[in-house]
Each structure stands twice: as C-alpha cells, then as structure tokens.
C-alpha cells in the first residue's frame, strides 16, 4: 500500500490540478521516483496546466506504458509504482490517496543484490510544495542519536 497527499492550489489565480479528478475517475495512478537531475522537469509537472495540455511534453519527459494500470509512467524515472486506488480520504482541504501497488519498475542499473541503489537513484521528493533529496543514509540502531 502506498499513499500520496493531493492538496488544493495555494494561489487564487491557479486552477486546480487534474490529479485528484483523474485518480477518482480511473481508480488508478502511478508514483514515480525521480532523481535530482530531473528536478526542474518535476517542478514543471507540478504546475497547473489546462486539462488538454500534454504535461509530459511540457515537462520534457517521456511517457512510458504501464503493464497493469492505464496511466503512463515517467520513462526517465528510476522507480515507478503502478497503483490501483483503494480509497481517497478527505482530510480538510487535502485528500489522502491510498493505493495498492500492483507493479514495480526499477531501472536495471539501480537494482543491485536484490536492493535499490539509493545513492545511485539520488531520489528527489516533494513535501508540502517544497523539495527534498535523500543525502544521508544510515543504519539503525545507532549510537549517534
């Protein structure tokens, strides 16, 4: 099970993104984990575009077919997870989308000894409109904390 939060736009002049509507209509979504090198593309994809716009084209990304769900995944992503919507929970003005992962895609060069090479992936995340990257990997328990 995976979840993603979809919130309203924070500016009055920007229309809402189509993400929530698309997921509720199709019952499917894809979570893509992209590398820092794709940060500007990821930011472009977060903008509000008209529903008829090709967001892959606007962001300079390649749509790749999924194997189980209908929406495409990001071809350049190091990791993509195809999900079927289990439920959408409204939390204030946000929605928490919970999905069952039905297919997992990992670029070959990132899969080593049964694990994902996180350093090689150089993952970028988005948290409440800000961006973050994983910089420090450590094992627990640790005497450093």
UniProtKB/TrEMBL annotation:
Origin superkingdom: Bacteria
Boundaries of every Flavin reductase like domain copy: 1-118
Keyword Hydrolase: no
Keyword terms, alphabetized: Flavoprotein, FMN, Monooxygenase, Oxidoreductase
Named cofactor requirement(s): FMN
Key word Oxidoreductase present: yes
Top EC class, one word: oxidoreductase
Family recorded in the similarity comment: Belongs to the flavoredoxin family.
Protein name from the UniProt record: Nitrilotriacetate monooxygenase component B
Gene source species: uncultured Rubrobacteraceae bacterium
